[in-house]
Amino acid sequence: MGRKLLTEHINVEGIDTLEGYRKHGGYRSVEKALKTMTPDEVVEEVKKSGLRGRGGAGFPTGMKWSFLAKPEGVPRYLVCNADESEPGTFKDRQLMSKLPHLLIEGMITSSYALGANTSYIYIRGELLYVLRILEKAIAEAYAAGFLGKNILGSGYDLDLHVHPGGGAYICGEETALLESLEGKRGNPRNKPPFPAVQGLYARPTVVNNVESIAAVPVIVNEGGDEYAKIGIGRSTGTKLISACGHLNKPGIYEIELGLPVEEFIYSDEYCGGIWKGRDLKAVVAGGSSVPILPKELILKTAAGENRLMTYESLSDGGFVTGTMLGSGGFIAMDETTCIVRNTWNFSRFYHHESCGQCSPCREGTGWMEKVLHRLEHGHGHMEDIDLLVSVAKQIEGNTICPLGEAAAWPVAAAVRHFRHEFEWHVTHAKEAAQPGAVYRAGAVLV
Amino acid sequence: MAKITFDGIEVEVPDGTTILNAARQIGGSIVPPAMCYYTPLKGSGGKCRACLVRVAAGSAKDPRPMPKLVASCVTPVQDGMVVENTTNEQVLNVRKGIVEMLLINHPLDCPVCDQAGECDLQNFAFEHGVSTTRYQEERRTFEKIDIGPLIQLHMTRCILCYRCVYTADQIAKGDRVHGVLGRGDAAEIGTYIENIIDNDFSGNVIDVCPVGALTDKTFRFKSRVWFTKPVNAHRDCPKCSGNVVLWYKGKDVLRTTARKDQYGEVKEWICNECRFEKKETSDWQIEGPAHIDRSSVISANHYELPVLNQSVVADLPESTVRDLQQNPPLKLGN
């Protein structure tokens, strides 16, 4: 059983209250940081820990913090990105609703490290009940003197606000999030300037994922070096994985990075294997926007090594034979899953969520969805398969924000690894168009 | 000052200049096309992706290439930057892709569109696109919106460059009620655009529109633009500079527009009175033929004479002569 750094007490009665949380060592990091450490020392610990952004891109958090511009007399902001809307990812919701004080503690310690006196939690609009939990917890923290003026007598002031979004996936992109937080339409900004220089209200801003911020108290309490001992290589610490799909035990698991994928899927400690005794067909390892991998490639790399749950191992082989750890939305699909239908479903999502600002994404996501719809419903042609790859390539890398890539990667990867299924949808259009029809080694399974 | 190399040509520009504007200092065919960027409008650019270029070296300090193509209209130059535009195969291929994307939902109704002949999208597609399409699906349509007696809105032709939104925001100050509604390919120019029509400068949205989405209702279906002759004129206008271009067909002034530079950008905004109401030659002081210096059919064969014939030049107002000297006429395809 791996160590649980974030979720050890998640199921303890009353852990969502300040009192219950304090009983289990809560707010120790705030006391330690504010009373015994300078802000730079906190940043240094986070750097040493090797913590990488848990929102998907995996950028080292400590490095991101050290990039923050610090001009004299200009306020800085810390914004927590709680706009978790990636299909397949649902870790932050659980973390915030069960352990609201962990996030608040992380926000206080992180804000202190960055020298921010006002911080925001931008939460997905649909999670209204979580917003209420957070607001209640923040009120408790204010009352106990962990927020507000002169926290714990250290002379450091911090105001923490929770702001709900309007329910757009694009607002999870950091600059769109900042626009939305400013009260504007959630369109991603052109970069540069990056938020570290001109973020919220054109001030230097750091935007971090909920899980990244929640890991900060642990790092401060135990020390960065201690945290870095967990995991393999540059993938340190623990990661929340939200496992879903055709698994015996779907749910949220905190794993030590470096766990073999095979163990994660099949051991009883974690997902307990594929449901109904079926065979695994494919896995989307890090939320819907990362490339899908077939069973053979998710369990072993192209070189035949065991695939591990680390940033490096999952991306081994680039996009030809690899994928990404992403945000930890682990979607397993059994042999009864139609990959074409699934790809269409994903691309329908991205078509719906494209902000429409830049042309490749606005037009391309809709185009891919229509072509996939045609293929799935038995009106496709062989050329359509190459057309999909070509359109995905035209979007990828040419857009303002990463949503273009997020839309293009799953389609390109599905065609790359499951081309025979797409071809079967053309050659056996009538069977393929039946509801629930699935290609399986040439036979139809309805 | 920053020195950059653009397509092998060195140019020195002030710090903070964008790559596109540095390229415009060089001029000619190496300038990346811009469908959404508009110098007079703050915040414009970065959306159409037509101007993507490759940065082969980020700066003298950090000569690593940038990982992705960058939008040249919003990316500032760095000293020692090396940029590839027409010399890079990838850039040209991506541009072809952008044309395709912009056209898949465009109605391609150029034969009945008033913008045809001076349309940025036409020029862009003609220069960088391919002549066939791979798109089989139904094109996107919108419900028609009437935005008043002066301006015609064709949402189906819109490429969502946001120029009119910025115009309404920045020129028609205080009356900002129009923006983009909806998301993705269902996004459309907000219906509240009709509310800025009351503004004296609302007509400028016609000039900034790169396509035929916003056209002049007083000019609707009157003539193809290449059959009309542009003439510089001015009048004493209490609201604006009064410097305009009149578009003549025979003796009739069919429409009035603001004067634009060689990149199609308005030099001075004009008011609605000048644009929509003054349609008689007697309303204006005529300066002489206007030169439209773009790869448009309008500039083909028009008004080369004044430059060549010195005796004609002598009769022209000084401002027109200066204009002609600065922007010598180009023949189509040159």
From TrEMBL, chain A:
Keyword Transmembrane helix carried by entry: no
GO BP field: cellular respiration
Residues spanning the membrane: none
Keyword annotations: 4Fe-4S, Flavoprotein, FMN, Iron, Iron-sulfur, Metal-binding, NAD, Oxidoreductase, Quinone, Translocase
Stretches assigned to the NADH-ubiquinone oxidoreductase 51kDa subunit iron-sulphur binding domain: 340-385
GO molecular function per UniProt: 4 iron, 4 sulfur cluster binding; FMN binding; metal ion binding; NAD binding; NADH dehydrogenase (ubiquinone) activity; NADH dehydrogenase activity; quinone binding
Known cofactor(s): [4Fe-4S] cluster; FMN
EC annotation from Swiss-Prot or TrEMBL: 7.1.1.-
InterPro entries per the UniProt record, alphabetical: ComplexI_51kDa_subunit, NADH-UbQ_OxRdtase_51kDa_CS, NADH-UbQ_OxRdtase_suF, Nuo51_FMN-bd, Nuo51_FMN-bd_sf, Nuop51_4Fe4S-bd, Nuop51_4Fe4S-bd_sf, SLBB_dom
Pfam families per UniProt: Complex1_51K (PF01512), NADH_4Fe-4S (PF10589), SLBB_2 (PF22461)
PROSITE patterns in the record: COMPLEX1_51K_2
Keyword Mitochondrion: no
Catalytic activity: a quinone + NADH + 5 H(+)(in) = a quinol + NAD(+) + 4 H(+)(out)
Homology family: Belongs to the complex I 51 kDa subunit family.
UniProt-listed NCBIfam families: nuoF_fam (TIGR01959), PRK13596.1 (NF010120)
Role noted for this protein: NDH-1 shuttles electrons from NADH, via FMN and iron-sulfur (Fe-S) centers, to quinones in the respiratory chain.
Name of the protein in question: NADH-quinone oxidoreductase subunit F
Higher taxonomy: Bacteria, Pseudomonadati, Bacteroidota, Cytophagia, Cytophagales
From TrEMBL, chain B:
Presence of keyword Transferase: no
Protein name: 2Fe-2S iron-sulfur cluster binding domain-containing protein
InterPro entries: 2Fe-2S_ferredoxin-like_sf (IPR036010), 2Fe-2S_ferredoxin-type (IPR001041), NADH_UbQ_OxRdtase_ferredoxin (IPR054351), NADH_UbQ_OxRdtase_Gsu_4Fe4S-bd (IPR019574), Prok_molybdopt-oxidoreductase (IPR050123)
All residue ranges annotated as the 2Fe-2S ferredoxin-type domain in the record: 2-89
All residue ranges annotated as the 4Fe-4S His(Cys)3-ligated-type domain in the record: 90-129
Family (UniProt): Belongs to the complex I 75 kDa subunit family.
Organism of provenance: Hymenobacter metallilatus
Essential cofactor(s): [2Fe-2S] cluster; [4Fe-4S] cluster
Keywords, in A-Z order: 2Fe-2S, 4Fe-4S, Iron, Iron-sulfur, Membrane, Metal-binding, NAD, Translocase
Pfam families per the UniProt record, alphabetical: Fer2_4, Fer4_Nqo3, NADH-G_4Fe-4S_3
CDD domains (UniProt xref): fer2 (cd00207)
Compartments it resides in: Membrane
GO cellular component terms given for this protein: membrane
Signal peptide: none
SMART domains with a match to the protein in the record: NADH-G_4Fe-4S_3
A molecular function GO annotation: oxidoreductase activity
Domain of life: Bacteria
